[in-house]
Amino acid sequence: MAIDIKSLNQSQLNDLIQKAQLRQDELRKEKVTKAREKVHALLKAEGVSFEDVFGAGAGGVRGKRRGTGVVAPKYRNPADPEQTWSGRGKRPRWFNEALKAGKKEKDLAI
């Protein structure tokens, strides 16, 4: 099916582009589905599960991140015991000031 795109106006051209992009998406989804079916058939034929091959966390929800949780503090400000730092991220001012004053990291450790 050959389409003479030079004879199309702007609206018809935009419609053609939109239909072509939709078709591309359909083809990509079909290809992914076929590949998934092949992988599952191969795994079944070998007698192993997806988790056996790729691990328990594989194949989960995309974009799902593991929670980092709360990290216990490693350092405490001797001048204000309320101020603590886990040792991760940017150093707090009190930590840098204590180091400049001659303290060592181990002196500030909890």
What does the model show?
This is H-NS histone family protein. Keywords: Coiled coil, Cytoplasm, DNA-binding. With 110 residues, the protein is mainly alpha-helical. The chain has two domains: 9-54; 75-108. Helix content is 49%, strand content 4%. The protein is built from four helices and two strands; from the N terminus they run ααββαα. The protein has helices at residues 10-46, 50-54, 93-100, 105-108; strands at residues 75-76, 84-85. Strands 1-2 form a two-stranded antiparallel sheet. It is elongated. The mean pLDDT is 88.
The number of helical runs is: 4
Given as residue ranges, the uncertain stretches (5+ residues, pLDDT < 50) are none
The residue fraction in helices comes out at 40-55%
In spatial order, strands of the major sheet run 1-2
Radius of gyration, in Å, reads 30 Å
Overall form: elongated
Question: In this structure, how is the largest beta sheet organized?
Answer: 2 strands, antiparallel
How many separate structural domains? 2
Describe the oligomeric state of these chains in a short phrase: single chain
Strand content: under 5%
Q: State the secondary-structure class.
A: mainly alpha
Sketch the topology as an H/E string, one letter per element.
HHEEHH
Give the termini distance in whole angstroms: 75 Å
Strand segment tally: 2
Average pLDDT, rounded to a whole number, is 88
Outline:
The protein has 110 residues and is mainly alpha-helical. Helices cover 49% and strands 4% of the residues. The protein has 4 helices and 2 strands, in the order H-H-E-E-H-H.
